[in-house]
Amino acid sequence: MKIAVIGAGISGISSAFELVANGHDVTVFEKSNAAAEGASFATNGLMASSLMQPLTLSASEPSHWNRFLKNAKPLSVRSGMRWNDLQWLWQWSKYGNTETLTASIQNLRALYAYSLERMRSIASHANLDYEQSNGQLVILRTAEDENMLRPRLSLLKDCGVEFQILSHEQCVKYEPALSLSTEFHAGIHFPNDEVANCRQFAMLLKAELLQKNVDFQFNAKVKGIKTTPHLSILLEGDNQARPFDHIVLCAGSDTPMLLQALQCDFASTSICNYTLTLPIRETTLAPRSAVLDTKTNITLHRLGQRIRVCGGYELGADVSKKHKKTMNHMYQVMEQFFPGAAMHQAGSQIFKSSQLITATGLPYIGASRVAGLWINAGHGVHGWGTACGSAKLIADLITKKEPEIGALAFQRLGY
Questions:
Q1: 217 CB-near residues (< 8 Å, 6+ apart)
Q2: In 12-111, which ranges are E strands?
Q3: How many CB atoms lie within 10 A of CB 179?
Q4: 86: which residues sit within 8 A by CB, 6+ positions away?
Q5: Per-residue pLDDT tens for 23-77?
Q6: Is the pTM of this model over 0.90?
Q7: What spatial distance separates the first Cα and last Cα of the chain, rounded to whole Å?
Q8: φ, ψ of residue 120 in degrees (nearest 5)
Q9: Is 88 exposed, middle or buried (0-12, 13-18, 19+ CB in 10 A)?
């Protein structure tokens, strides 16, 4: 079948790879002039099967109102915030009770496991060599922080997540470069979490697709999706729409806009975040893998000879506008934990991107209300960790193959 994929981020490229593997003729449309230029360009790199990431899932609190306040705390509210953003935050908090949170964790962990297995299989067969490291250390500043996390840790343990609570001394033994002058209560080590270079993997996968004659159309902004007289894509600057048997929407934050004209309801919002990528000045002073500070919701991790710092989550923000105060705070946190490890001026890169996140915290992977139009979006901070599994799932659904994992949990977002 002739299939269009809208978006050449990690979700789009992975989807194209699986569709080609199923024997389809694939064209990828990307509004930028290169692949993986949006949210996939400088991700936090963390493939956290533990689900211990900022903004992962709703907080487990006894009341809806308390969950709302706690979920809003890590977010900076900007002047562009809409009523839809508040509605999303309220709905997101609704899914924080123990029953729904447990179900979300179980479904998301199944997708993670499937995705990591698929990623490793692809990398092995295609001989893809990319930067990676193992393990995540979650820093707890106070005993109160540990107590607040205990309900979540209990759920993770019930779901089979492996972790170990470490003392301050054990944390420093695990991450020898951690500053001894930085005070914190304890840490939680998740050995099965990973760090990997998302953009590097995406570009390697793109090279494989070019060898398989996949047509990449760059600087191709989709103006609209038409359903009559047949399913087709209209690009800006084109007079005629291009017909396809199926269309897979992997457009990230542009997804709701493209669906709106088709009267498809997608319960989601866009959240911006920052990443700072800095060259390592002294290897012995740098982190071995990933560190998450629960106080600031900032992650630091190692990517080859670079350190990446991620955080500064904003609701209602302009992705093109960077706030100096936010970036300075991220620099300060890095210096607090790993002083002298990075060069702040030479070769540093500051990137701000927008991520689509759903009200349930789970991505939407499946059919839309429009026949032939499929959605693979709303992954939020998990976009890299769940990319390969989501792609295989959507490709099998289109080809009418029986999915290897349950798909229903990822098809209940307001449809």
A1: 27, 28, 29, 30, 235
A2: 25-29, 46-47, 76-77
A3: 16
A4: none
A5: 999 999 999 999 999 999 998 888 998 989 887 745 555 555 455 555 556 677 6
A6: yes
A7: 26
A8: -65, -35
A9: buried
